């Protein structure tokens, strides 16, 4: 993970692309790449989405990589440790979504309180 | 990173949420969380996006964590190693965007060929 | 439709919000609102998405309205007539997706050529 | 507007595409198209986004048309009148964002109350 951060810093620096990499712009690039993943799934049934042909899977892998790249770039610009942040959030989620209460139900935690 | 994957598998299993986690649905959740990051930046100037107040930064950190969580979930469901995929993509990008050619220009590689 | 355009111009002017409404920012707001629609559907089956409870439908209606509002704002800023543009695109789609060839298949037109 | 709704119904019917057009899938297509607009703006400054070259503008016009098409399709499937919904929302916004209070400030209405 630290390697990835370093590689991406160098990649941007060598190309003088840091000027484009404001958090605002990186957030835009991130949502664009996330939507490119969605595009692959938009007309599929849920079953089809679970057994993709190899060539589709390769294309989606490349889009997932793009999301990971921009997410890492954005977190780095904001001084955020991606793995750390994810772990903190999971701890919070464990409290907001206690297993006994939410089992088998997909609601937002604000909706369980209703 | 492997810890994160394991934690997320357990988290979903304990809540019987695997039934909701088709790749199609996870792709949707991913773009939703990515857009929640964008929401924080939509009315800011690029300069403002570079020096966020602490409370905003905390909120954005939580959204970034959500993207990381769903991205990890999705990659795991598809049997994709997130770090591996990112590294492969960077190698490809180095070829598609040779520093000497693209320095200081933000174009898609297909546009450099025009 | 023209009324909507006029109303939105006035709304922004009265609030001195035109300064925030660059096409770049409006595009961000648009994708954010589109993702808020997606959020309502992310854990639903396709069948469930076809028979929504009334309160969900009301919430989604409000999100759809938000997308329409930002889309109208964006098109207006760029001097684009929304209905005109949609009609032109449908004509193009009729050529790219001839009914006899694509019936019952959901592919991008570039994929039919493969 | 009613013409557009009718045209789109026919377009889908002739291609037997209604089977793909669940609200869930249409919401996905909508966010994908919205993100394609964002892609055009992601590396531009706000000033650049206000004075686009003609060829870029044409490309963006086609993406805006796509958003309008899927938005109309989605609203139609849910029995929502797009213009009506937008007008209702504007009335609500007028109450949530009184001009005297929000002039020149870009906040969510929930934030004005803080």
Describe the structure.
4 copies of one chain form a homotetramer. Chain A has 114 residues and is mostly helical. Helix content of chain A is 74%, strand content 0%. The first copy, chain A, has 7 helices and no strands. In chain A, helix 2 (23-41) runs antiparallel to helix 4 (54-77). The first copy, chain A, is globular. The first copy, chain A, starts with a helix and ends with a helix. Chains in contact: A-B, A-C, A-D, B-C, B-D, C-D. Chains B and D meet through helix 2 of B and helix 2 of D.
Summarize the helices and strands and which ones pair or pack.
The structure is a homotetramer of 114-residue chains.
Chain A: H1 2-14, H2 23-41, H3 46-50, H4 54-77, H5 82-96, H6 99-102, H7 109-112
Helix pairs in contact in A: 1-4, 2-4
């Amino acid at each position: 993970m630290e390697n990835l951060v370093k590689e991406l810093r160098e990649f941007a620096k060598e190309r003088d692309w840091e000027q484009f990499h404001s958090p605002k712009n990186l957030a835009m690039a991130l949502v664009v790449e996330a939507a490119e993943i969605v595009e692959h799934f938009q007309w599929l049934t849920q079953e089809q989405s679970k057994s993709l042909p190899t060539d589709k899977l390769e294309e989606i892998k490349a889009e997932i990589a793009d999301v990971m790249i921009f997410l890492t770039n954005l977190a780095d610009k904001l001084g955020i440790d991606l793995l750390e942040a994810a772990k903190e959030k999971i701890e919070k989620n464990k409290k907001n979504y206690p297993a006994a209460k939410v089992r088998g139900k997909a609601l937002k935690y604000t909706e369980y309180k209703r």
